[in-house]
């Protein structure tokens, strides 16, 4: 097995840079263009949230970087991904073992189906260290107990000898985190880490991730559709729709100076913590486009309340709104008409307009 020789990066420099990534899947019905030109970066000690509804390409994006996308039927048709300055997609074939565990750890969405039911928890964590670090079984098992204790599983020595069915959902998620951080990766990918957990356990898992990041300086890529989790955890946000990046920027810009109608729609569909009975949850009408044959224009045009004629015929390029805030929308073109709108039906004036869009 060849190990990727990565380079040290300066403080504040991106650990991972993804540029124009495109992934397709060949099926009997045709080619599914699952990821269409996705670009982002994440630096050490920072959290990048990738947000979007189911099927928008969030998980496929990161899985393709780690060599977890089966090829065939999957194909990376173009794009670059630089890990500490080294292009990890520039080779003919990606051996995921070169970066999985060593450089990038991943917490999968469903720990019950991701863990082997026939192996003890400690053995599964130890196996990661044996494969990637070449440790002896005893040394790896001792470290597995330390990792379980680190992720706050009580009676770690006893728990290491138990099987997945003997763990609760929250404990399984902690065990997955222990496995992901076993080799001290530079980047930790968390794919829906709080799915199917109750609110209390969700908060504990998120606090654990924050503590681990603070102690180790690990970069986190958080894949979720829960905007509350994003607001709590993220430094930067990528909003995906139909395999593309609809909006990208700091969490403050994306949440409080939203510039794409899709992000505005997601905000309007969020429950409010206030007792204002006039606030209504507004669903986004319609369905995402068929990625067997993506639209020639803006992917969101058919559902957008601000759509113009050009939106259905030409795909907009990302507009730079300053401070790294980008939005893929024709309404930010210099020639676009100014949109005077209310705060998505709540009956209140929009709080600040950005290039004609309600904030």
User: What multimeric state do the chains show?
Assistant: single chain
CATH architecture tag of the largest domain: 3-Layer(aba) Sandwich
Name of the level-1 CATH class of the largest domain: Alpha Beta
Counted by DSSP, the helix tally is: 10
- CATH fold-type name of the largest domain: Rossmann fold
Question: What is the count of structural domains?
Answer: 2
| Proportion of residues in helical segments | 25-40%
Query: Secondary-structure element sequence?
Result: EEEHEEEHHHHHEHEHEEHHEEEE
For the sheet with most strands, the description reads: 8 strands, mixed
Average pLDDT value? 82
| Widest β-sheet, arrangement of strands | 6-7-8-3-9-10-12-11
Secondary structure: elements and pairs:
Elements: E1 14-27, E2 30-43, E3 47-51, H1 58-65, E4 74-83, E5 86-87, E6 104-107, H2 111-114, H3 121-133, H4 137-150, H5 156-159, H6 169-180, E7 187-191, H7 199-216, E8 219-224, H8 227-233, E9 236-241, E10 244-250, H9 251-256, H10 261-268, E11 319-320, E12 326-327, E13 353-354, E14 357-358
Parallel strand pairs: 3-8, 3-9, 6-7, 7-8
Antiparallel strand pairs: 1-2, 1-4, 4-5, 9-10, 10-12, 11-12, 13-14
Helix pairs in contact: 3-4, 3-6, 4-6, 6-7
